[in-house]
């Protein structure tokens, strides 16, 4: 995640957001690589361990991810403009419903 301070001139924290749109590293493939990573780990653990509880956590976090996308996307479009819209067409949120 070194791309955020180097390219974006900021951090992942909402208190110090990036000034530039980061489209390098994992961000060139998915919009939220950390959320996607957690979702993939939870789904893998649920399958490997056969745990209904982990499967429940997986679905809750997936729903949380969708809510975050719903509220975050308009702000990112407003902040980065056409550059973000073009980037959004090239990469994915990882989970198309």
TrEMBL record:
Alphabetic keyword roster: Membrane, Transmembrane, Transmembrane helix
Cell location: Endomembrane system
Membrane-spanning residues: 47-71
Pfam family, one: PEMT
Topology term for the membrane: Multi-pass membrane protein
Cellular component GO terms held in the UniProt record: endomembrane system
InterPro entries to which the protein is assigned, alphabetical: Phopholipid_MeTrfase
Main location: membrane
Official protein name in the record: Phospholipid methyltransferase
Organism: Thermoactinomyces mirandus
